[in-house]
Design a protein that fits this description.
Blueprint (H helix, E strand, L loop, with lengths): L2 E4 L5 H12 L3 E6 L2 H10 L3 E5 L5 H9 L5 E6 L15 H22 L3 E10 L12 H20 L6 E7 L20 H13 L4 E4 L1 H10 L4 H11 L2
Helix pairs in contact: 1-6, 3-4, 4-5
Length: 241
């Protein structure tokens, strides 16, 4: 039986992935900070095991890795957060630091302690965002953290070839999660977590390097990214009024 470790498994995409992989007869190591939610998740399927730790605390990540009793076939680093900087002239450096730490620095912690536990022929999965395709108003902190994830994934994909470890990058559009529920703007083509999890599962089974969805939305984002910078700047400025 194959084993997958998923961070951020107590809600949203992470929770949906944990339940889906368990249904597909995988051993699932579900990770998160909320022990109560992890316990509730494990009660849904006996193939799900809880591992409680805070990805932003290096010592806790190291301790969690020591608790692993088996190597893993799939490592999905999904945990993350989103906050917006509303006024660039009042740049919130504390907010910026929080987002960079949870979305990027924590990935470094997890790679240090979990990457070596991936079996030969296994796969590393990093969660990014379709927001990386275009610079978007208010998303400076979030977008910067996710753009760094893209570069990291693309670099590791080259470097890990000799170890027979694949790397996949996930760039979703809007998914209905506790994070997007806080948004006060229109979110076109937002999908349910179960739908997102199915796309991710089947694309990972196919060994896709980049997974983006819903394609009706992400394809438009990719097309707009081909526009001259000055054109997109005018469009984005209208969005930011």
């Amino acid at each position: 039986m194959q084993t997958v470790l998923i961070t951020g498994a107590t809600s949203g995409i992470g929770e949906a992935l944990a339940l889906l992989y368990a249904r597909q007869d995988w051993n699932v190591i579900a990770c998160g900070r909320n022990q109560q939610k992890l316990t509730a998740l494990t009660q849904m399927d006996s193939k799900i095991s809880p591992l409680s730790f805070d990805v932003t605390q290096q010592g806790e990540v190291a301790g969690a890795a020591q608790q692993l009793t088996r190597d893993i076939d799939l490592l999905i680093l999904n945990a993350g957060d989103c906050e917006y900087i509303d006024n660039p002239l009042e740049f919130d450096s504390s907010l910026f630091e929080r987002i960079i730490k949870v979305n990027l620095i924590s990935i470094g912690y997890c790679l240090e302690y979990f990457l070596k536990r991936i079996k030969k022929g296994g796969r590393l999965v990093l969660m990014s965002s379709s927001a990386t395709y275009l610079p978007l108003p208010r998303a400076g902190a979030y977008g910067a953290s996710k753009c760094a994830i893209n570069y990291l994934a693309n670099t590791l994909r080259i470097e890990l070839c000799k170890f027979d470890i694949g790397v996949s990058l996930i760039c979703p559009g809007f998914v209905k999660t506790p994070l997007t529920d806080k948004n006060e703007f229109a979110m076109p083509l937002r999908v349910e977590p179960d739908h997102a999890a199915r796309i991710i599962y089947f694309d990972l089974e196919s060994g896709e390097d980049e997974i983006h969805f819903p394609q009706a939305f992400t394809s438009i984002m990719k097309f707009l990214s081909l526009l001259p910078v000055r054109v997109w700047r005018k469009i984005a400025s209208l969005m930011n009024r």
